Amino acid sequence: MYRGPMDVTQRAEGIAAVAKQLDALEGVMSLRTDGPFVAGREPSTADAALFPTYVFMEYLLPKLFGWDDVFAKRPRTREWWDAMRTDTCGARVYDEVRGGLEAWDAAGRWAKVGIEDAVEDDAHRWNY
Questions:
Q1: How far is the C-alpha of 51 from the C-alpha of 67, rounded, in Å?
Q2: Vertex 9, ends 7 and 15: CA angle to 5°?
Q3: Which of 15, 31, 7 minimizes the C-alpha distance to 63?
Q4: String of DSSP letters for 50-119
Q5: Angle at CA 20, nearest 5°, toward 1 and 113?
Q6: Is omega for the bond preceding 5 within 30 degrees of 0, making it cis?
Q7: Which of these, 45, 15, 8, lies nearest to 123 by C-alpha position?
Q8: What is the reported pTM?
Q9: If we measure between CA atoms, which residue out of 71, 72, 70, 79 comes closest to residue 31?
Q10: Residue 90 contacts residue 47 (beta carbons within 8 Å)
């Protein structure tokens, strides 16, 4: 999503892979039976591993790649996201990561790594 510079086709293939993996994770989230977090009622290492990357996706995919909603057709993941956002530690991680992304945005990172030019290439699909 944010690395680069890279070949436009490689970037588009990476975004397609992100969409596929989000659907796979929705399947995993659908297995939950005891609470909103990955492994139950309380956040665990699994939540801590996934959440920062989701903050990146929730910020970057709509902003740069035209996604309407990262959680569209992923209701169980949306439940998890909402639980993580209201968790004390999750809220702190969200604010820290989001602040970093906003700083990158202000510094023009997306142009520097070629994302802004890449998404102008309509020969590739960017939004899922």
A1: 19
A2: 105
A3: 15
A4: HHHHHHHHHHHHHHHH--S-TTTT-HHHHHHHHHHHHSHHHHHHHHHHHHHHHHHHHTTHHHHTTHHHHT
A5: 10
A6: yes
A7: 8
A8: 0.92
A9: 79
A10: yes
SS3 (DSSP) at 47: helix
With cut-offs at 50, 70 and 90, classify the pLDDT of residue 2: confident
**pLDDT at position 5:** 83
Q: Return d(Cα 122, Cα 13) in angstroms, integer.
A: 14
Whether the CA torsion 49, 51, 57, 60 is positive or negative: it is negative
Amino acid (one-letter) located at 71: F
- Taking the alpha carbons at both ends of the chain, their separation in whole angstroms is 13
Report how far residue 27's alpha carbon sits from residue 23's, in angstroms, rounded to the nearest whole number. 6
Tokens of 32: 């939950």
